[in-house]
Design a protein that fits this description.
- By secondary structure, this protein is an alpha/beta fold.
- The protein has 3 domains: 161 residues, Rossmann fold (3-Layer(aba) Sandwich), CATH 3.40.50; 181 residues, Aldolase class I (TIM Barrel, Alpha-Beta Barrel), CATH 3.20.20.70; 55 residues.
- The chain is built from 19 helices and 17 strands.
- Helix 10 crosses helix 11 and helix 11 runs parallel beside helix 12.
Length: 474
Amino acid sequence: MTGPRLDLLLTHAYFLADDPHEQELCRPFPPLGIQYVVAWLRRAGFSAVDWFDSTFQPGPAALLAHVADADPRVVGLYGHTVTRPVARDIVARLVEQGRRVIAGGPDPAQYVEEYLDMGVEVLVIGEGERTLQELMEHLAGNGWRWRWEALSAIPGIAFRDPDGRQVRTAPRPLIRPLEQIPWPYRDRRDLSAYLETWRARHGETALSMITSRGCPFHCSWCSKQVYGDSYRRRDVDDVIDEMAFLKQTFQPDQIWFADDLFTINRRWVHRFCRRVVERGLQTPFYLIGRPGSLDPAMCDALRRAGCYRMYLSAESGAQHVLDAMRKDGSVEQILQGARLLRAHGIQVGVFVMLGYPGETPADVTATMRMLHEVQPEVTLLSLAHPMKGTAFYDQVADRIERPPGWERANGGRLAFRMDLPRRYYDCAQRWMHAEGALVRRLRQGELDLEVAALLARAATWRVGMRAVERGLWR
């Protein structure tokens, strides 16, 4: 052990080396959730709390080696869908070593039995700061052992009592106002690998922030296991002060606002933009916006403050698919939002989801038409996958597939019997990428061999889609 023994070591068991999709994009950010918890606990007096960032490590062995060196009394694991398969093995090793193990995040809240079966002793359900503080106070006051009969009084947790019965305590009220939460614990040591990776791949650096927690909308596929249906926003000046700190301390070339929906409150957005300009903090930033919330005044204010790209959660170019998703928006709003952004010099990014129940080949074509009209600089495509605890999951519960080895093969994501063969959607994604790139280059007046190659690829994958439709390719 190279230093004093830790009381708590937090980690997330995410390894970039095991994520080929993110390796291709290569836009990693530190886990803000863990950094928030570290900051909260240190302010509460738990100085022997730290976190281990596994993102750039080669695999679980490096995490376990760090645990052996730091010798924490408690290991806390942030659980996410994609990390569940590897977390199982890590937890087993920690339990073999006789360590206290807790877990929190969106995944454990819906897979309580699975995480308890792994050997996790206590799960944090919902927002983690206050709950984890109470758990640490409980352990510190009881010789780092659980007093199971007393745990039932701590809101927001789940565990098994000594008789093997599952106990889930009352929900914990959410923290209000958000300004009482300290800024994430950021240290140059923790951020250096991220800054260097961004610089090496993109020639610039980036850091992330959040200005809110939660989302008040009810999209059928969206998991809300941590913040529920709530929406809380930080005071503008608190956000601005954090921006100033990031700019002075780390000099990022851009900032990613990782809120679910940044543009939901026009008044707040205008105050934010005004204060950014007043304090001379204009730094290029990008965010997620809701198309129906945009108007010319907001787009103009955002651009003046430094916004250079906004991602729109478009999902589909077919209105009945959006309605089935409970998107509470329209295709026309997506198109109008994109036009507004372009008119004010803001790039457009879009999220598109293929394979939602009820989507037809004609709907996929309509989505492609929408993309041609939106002309996004970035299109992020995904296949629909149900997450436990969502309306989408309930809708397709009898169609969910769990073949042997599904967790590791799918990165923990559930698959279901889709309306068309999965090969169709594989072809559709490749077609959309190729045709989108082709049209973008043609609009720029480019005519070269790469354009010819994109034309051939788009045609090939379009033929593949039709062959799958007609049962000629399975």
